[in-house]
Amino acid sequence: MPELSHKRRQLVLAICCMSLLIVSLDNTVLNVALPSMQHELHADVAGMQWTIDAYTLVLASLLMLAGSTADRIGRRKVFKIGLVLFTLGSVLCSVAPNLESLIAFRMVQAVGGSMLNPVAMSIITNTFTDPRERARAIGVWGGVVGISMAAGPLVGGLLVDSVGWRSIFWINLPVGLAALLLTWRYVPESRAPKPRRPDPVGQLLVVALLGSLTYAIIEAPSAGWASPRILVFAAITVCALAGLLMYEPRRAEPLIDLRFFRSAPFSGATAIAVSAFAALSGFLFLNTLYLQNVRGLSALHAGLYMLPMAALTFICAPLSGRLVGSRGPRLSLLVAGSAMTACGLLFAAFDAESRNVMLFAGYLLFGIGFGMVNAPITNTAVSGMPRSQAGVAAAVASTSRQIGGTLGVAVIGAVLAAGVAGTGSPRGASYAAAFADASKPAWWIITGCGLCVLLVGMLTSGPWARRTARLTAEQLETPAGPRPRAPPPAPARRAPPDDISRRFEFGQPILV
């Protein structure tokens, strides 16, 4: 790809950030609209879970495929297709006549969304070749997530109260079309020098694993945990996981290169991303239903109540990015894990929702925790990956976030659905009492997610973890797959760690 001028690089960054804005804003706005959608479409808790998880499930299943495909056939081409599908899916969602149609159209959105964020990250990585300039660019990219977190509840509340829940999908249309036209005109095409070959078997196993696991968790409260249908999907989950672990290491170019997980920071970042985003999705799902169905607030007032959490996320995200760049990921992870754990404890053990002061204290703590956690996740997950596989590397980090979001809504929603089953209308007194009891174990799950962030962050950010990352960077120089039995030729002089670090950009402050 030819070297671009500074102005052109900034324009490419702005276009990529537009795609992130509509995807991130869509998720936060949707949560505020859930009670209105539930009322109009006559849906239960499981139905509301599927409106969220149908999107995140498809997204998580296709992110790695989209990243590797973009590296192979062209990043701009895949990015444009993603913008078209996401915008089309948004229009279809706004006219969905029933719950089933809405879930199907959300899946169309997700197919497009899978081609946006990881591909946009890959475009940025290959546009900004200077490590420091790239760090600042991805820092701006990460700030867009904070903007969407802060604006989402307010924008969603205003639209739902004034126009209706269908209008939340309309805002994607002008932004999506503008991003498409600007991409056509200003974003240069780029490909990986040596892209990975397709892995259809691995892709099918990933879809089977995530789909069957999510279905079993969401449908178990109504079908019964020991029902034949749930047991069949649980068995599919186990078989798909076993198939991935046995099949992927045998491929020369697997969909998921399991050698990445030999790096303790990379494995830790994956576990932390799943835990943090499970906590976030569960937090938003619980509080949206609580504020509107139990407290009786309007969508706008519910958005205003959650504004302190969003504001702290917006403030702490860039602070965490600078902290990771100057001192590494450890301190940010410790602060994030401590704050998220403290928030969960306030609600689980001290009934924080019963008093506004405690309620807002919990919101502030969660905003601090989630704001601090995103930068170290991306730094440790992307650092050490070869730049030629930027799409795959970004997709692995994004996939772990989406898996966490999917599991958070599935598990928290299943616990809540089991507790409020048979209590009648969501606005009734019996529902409110059942909701209070059912939310206790849900808050303990969120507390456990925060504790996981804290403990895994401590274990995977020290000297031992950094050594495993350097060794993994060396191993990634050789192709994956079975090695010949013949002894290799005498190795050349081994490069010192600093050279390996520079070659793979290990430890560079890549921030989100």
What is shown here, in short?
This protein is an all-alpha fold. Helix content is 77%, strand content 0%.
What would you say this structure looks like, in words?
It is globular, with a radius of gyration of 22 Å. By secondary structure, the protein is mainly α. Helix content is 77%, strand content 0%. Helix 1 crosses helix 10, helix 2 (45-73) packs antiparallel against helix 3 and helix 13 (330-350) runs antiparallel to helix 14. It is built from 18 helices and no strands. Residues 492-512 have low confidence and may be disordered. It has helices spanning 6-41, 45-73, 75-94, 99-113, 117-127, 131-162, 172-186, 200-223, 228-247, 264-294, 299-305, 307-327, 330-350, 356-382, 390-420, 429-459, 463-475, 497-504. It folds into 2 domains: 6-199 and 251-476, MFS general substrate transporter like domains (Growth Hormone, Chain: A, Up-down Bundle); 200-250.
